[in-house]
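Collaborator request, handled under Task 6.
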Amino acid sequence: MGESIDKEESRLWTGNFILHTGSYLIMAMSFYFLIPTLPKYVINVLGEDKSQVGLIIGFYAFSALAIRPISGFLFDKYGRRYLYLVSLFLFSLTMASYNLAFTFVILLGIRLIHGAVWGFLTTGGATIAADLIPEKKRGMGIGIFGLSFTLSMALGPGIGEWILKEFNFNVLFWSAFFVALLSLIIAVNVKSPNISDRKQRVKVNNLFDRKVAPVAIVMIFLAFPFAGIMSFISLFADEIGLENGGAYFFIFYAIGVSVLRPLAGFIMDKKGPKLVVAACMIFSFSGMLMIGFSESAFLFYTAAIVTGLGNGLIMPVMQTMVINMVPPERRGVANSTLFSAIDLGFGIASFMLGMVAQFYSLKVMYILDAIILIIPTFYFFSYVLKYYHNNLYIRRSE
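Structure tokens returned to the collaborator:
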């Protein structure tokens, strides 16, 4: 176990950090090509209903959930770089395989494979980022790295919608493949710290970090509104008569995320998570209610910004919390535990919300999303906040 790269303790903007963040942005952008377009493929090409949209999202999430524990273990045991590059290569191939989705069953199979590769890839990408960020700037660094996902969210859906409008689904899927391949070419040039522990063995403690479980439980519930947006926002925009509304929603959503995400990391580094999480819950709750009651473009896109503000605050804070609670050689399993919780919540939410949308309405579904946020808010402030401060690895090791 050790670091082969002599990293300056106080320097965040290194060439490797910039390249890794840029590569991750491009990879995530190819992923977002499919967010507003795949539901339309299911309904318009394959002839399925809204509940089946939830099914393809749910399959994807549960597949990612199944692979994350072993991925975190492998990244901690064997190191990050080569496993990450292999997963990025497989991710690229999976994008091209959507051209073979001639039936709903085949599409479900592709989603299972894609979800597993995504679970492996994102666990490794986030872990490499944590390795490249100096400890004293961890909150800010993770927030900035997270902006790669945010920018991809702003660019990807709009580009995907444009490709589909001007060409067809085959061109869309091939475009996603070539963009993912570009991400791989950039990633090959990233040199990350060589952190590994070959003595690790397969056991529960090395697949799931119980220490960060309370933080992970919060993310299970916070995945519900995110699932509602990712799975159904394009269909909801069509319902209220907004052409390309899903793509524009993600642009405004990304603006909201970008505004506060770096500030969230800075406050987290200086003051801890309390203030940031409180603001996140308020923004997220308000945004979901606004979406549910949207009947005009103004309220719909304002809701996108408000919801984005909430999402921009929460993810860097929660990831910083789990990284701060474990030693370097357990960052992989800590990240996989956190992302597994998101996948679990996302998968459950996709099935549940798909049924609510089918038998009631998308409006009811988004209002239900807002109500569900009461649960993690109460749990965080009544238990998790104190638990976190009592289990800081960094503080104990100083």
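The cover message to the collaborator said: "Residues 1-8 have pLDDT under 50 and may be disordered. The longest helix spans residues 50-78. Please let us know whether this matches your experimental observations."
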